[in-house]
Amino acid sequence: MAVKSQEERSIANEDDILDVRNSVKRVTALLNFSLVNQTKIISAASELARNTLEHGKGGKSIIQLVTEPERIGIRLIFEDTGPGIPDLARALEDGYSTGRGMGLGLGGAKRLMDDFDIESKENEGTRVTVTKWTEKN
Amino acid sequence: MDRIPILKIGDVLLVTIQVDFHDRIAIALLEDLSEKIVDNSAKGVLIDISALEMVDSFMGRILGNISKTAKLLDCHCVLVGMQPAIAITITELGITLPGIYTALTAEDGMKLLTDMVKSKTNGKTSAKKQEAKWR
């Protein structure tokens, strides 16, 4: 997988979530994702950015345009240096929340995207990477 | 701070969400709307979300809370204009919005609200009649 371009955005307050959403929207439109897939990617980005802000106490997001021989995609990385997630399996369950959401953030984002990866270390932080692919045209 | 305008049409309050629905605006809407429902003795709230390009779980929770709060204040709430892409996405995300009434267009939503208000008033009248009978 090759990274064609990327932009980085810090997530320090609620307005930043909006900025992340708008950047992601721009890239999904550029990649000609269908409207449904655009909506799914923007929603996943919003969920994950909110996690970074609320649970990770802020951090950053990296929005990448990635390519493989047969396909092209958008990869989103959300990083924080917060408390980490002690019980990853549980955090991925629907309805488990320690914040203000519905507890659908991680599991929901996983369902909305094609690839999902999470690394978390207690007291060091969390890094979530998600990718959605589209056929090259 | 940006606020979402709330228009009054008869017994109904009309809210059209056209701005980026971010957290502070969403919470302010919940508070403004609750006050307006009480001040105007509104019987219905119509929330138009046709301009929204996404609904995440936070917004879903706020919309759910608006509906529940309205219900406690003797007011019905109908959500109109949800884009198909949003319906698909929030279903996959797992947002169910229990107890929320929806209609495809503002016109259908108005009809639904009018019917709901009417049936409730009729229900009250018949209850009163019933009470009178018992006396």
Instruction: Spell out the CATH superfamily of chain B.
Output: STAS domain
In the CATH scheme, the class of chain A would be Alpha Beta
Strand order of the largest sheet of chain B: 1-2-3-4-5
| N- and C-termini, Cα separation of chain B | 55 Å
Distance between the termini of chain A: 17 Å
CATH topology call of chain A: Heat Shock Protein 90
What's the helical proportion of residues of chain A? Answer: 25-40%
CATH-scheme architecture of chain A: 2-Layer Sandwich
- The share of residues in helices of chain B is 40-55%
- Please give the CATH class of chain B: Alpha Beta
Q: What does the oligomeric state look like here?
A: heterodimer
Total DSSP E strands of chain B: 5
Summed up, the domain count of chain A is 1
Poorly predicted runs of chain B are none
Determine the structural class of chain B based on helices, strands and strand pairing: alpha/beta
Structural class of chain A: alpha+beta
**What number is the mean pLDDT of chain A?**
90
- Model regions low in confidence, pLDDT < 50 over at least 5 residues of chain A: none
Give the largest chain-chain interface (CB within 8 Å). A-B, 27 and 23 residues
Please trace the helix and strand order of chain A, writing H or E for each element. Answer: EHHEEHHEE
Report the CATH architecture of chain B.
2-Layer Sandwich
Q: How does this model look, in words?
A:
The complex is a heterodimer of chains A (about 140) and B (about 140). Chain A is α+β, with helices and mostly antiparallel strands and about 140 residues long. Chain A has one domain: Heat Shock Protein 90 (2-Layer Sandwich). Chain A has a five-stranded antiparallel beta sheet with strand order 1-2-3-5-4, with helices on one face. Chain A is globular, with a radius of gyration of 14 Å. In chain A, a hairpin with a 3-residue loop joins strand 4 (about 115-120) and strand 5 (about 125-135). Chain A has helices at about 15-30, 35-55, 90, 105-110, and strands spanning about 1-10, 60-65, 70-80, 115-120, 125-135. Chain B has about 140 residues and is of the alpha/beta class. Chain B is built from four helices and five strands; from the N terminus they run E-E-H-E-H-E-H-E-H. Chain B has helices spanning about 25-40, 55-70, 85-95, 105-135, and strands spanning about 5-10, 10-15, 45-50, 75-80, 100-105. In chain B, helix 3 (about 85-95) links the parallel strand 4 and strand 5 (about 100-105). In chain B, helix 1 (about 25-40) packs parallel to helix 2 (about 55-70). Chain B is globular and about 40 Å long. Chain B starts with 5 loop residues before the first strand and ends with a helix. The chains are: A alpha+beta (about 140), B alpha/beta (about 140). At the A-B interface, helix 1, helix 2 and helix 4 of A face helix 2 and helix 3 of B.
